[in-house]
Amino acid sequence: MKMIIFKHAKELSNFFHLQKVKNKIGFVPTMGALHDGHIFLIEQAKKKSNIVICSIFVNPTQFNDVNDYKKYPVSLEEDIKLLEFTGTDILFLPGIDEIYPTGTTELEIYDIGFLETILEGKFRPGHFQGVCQVVSRLIKIIQPDEMFMGQKDLQQCLVIKRLLNMTDPSVHLVICPTVREPSGLAMSSRNKRLNEGQKSSAIAIHRALLYIKNSISPGQLDQIKNNAAFILAQNNFKIDYVELVDAETFEIVSTWNGKQKLAVLIAAFLGDVRLIDNMLL
Ligand code: AMP
Quick one: which of 111, 170, 208, 215 is 20 to 30 A from 182 by CA? Predict the structure, then answer.
């Protein structure tokens, strides 16, 4: 089937009403400027669904920094070609009025607990509320069976799991591993904003994650975090956090008992581009 592009929620619902059989719908929400990480999600969705829908919507309510929003890369023509080439069935390309018909000022506030107060929640106030607002609206419109998201945004995956438990327990979240450049740099739309010099510095995030993975030992974790921060600082990064958390509960871990499963997470700026990455240990 040739990819169909819908810009209006109503047209999309009509399309589903006209389907004679109940399809298994796999949904990949994105903000566009697509790369191989997004394409991997589409491929995973294709394996498990009859209809794969990708959405492209740069959601203003999840940007705590207006400049980050204004500078967010857009490459719609290439995105459409990539999605067609990958065999995506439907592209949902809503305008802001379609997602927020009553405006963006009085939107629902979701109880996502302590996830909102640590790491991305702490450094990007309001970010996860925006993510919940857009995802719950998209789910209402698309009614997917499964939603595919990247481990690249690990804390976001936990937030969405919590959201689904509260509001749409029938939607299953599939978390897909992070796709990386051969250098180790996690693919990200924001990488498009890095110049060549910054791109080679950016590899330091992956090096810092690997350093922690390979040198961690039971006991206090301060020293290892400081050493990883030093690797980043040497490569011109301005650090928001280098942190270790329990991989299941996401509680911050300062002393490791040697058994607990951990995840290490980094957020740091190169110039005005903020990059995040993580690794399960
Ligand atoms: P974004 O367009 O950045 O909002 O991302 C859309 C989805 O793609 C999210 O679920 C991300 O976690 C996922 N994603 C972004 N980068 C990668 C990557 N390098 N590997 C796998 N998934 C990714």
Answer: 215
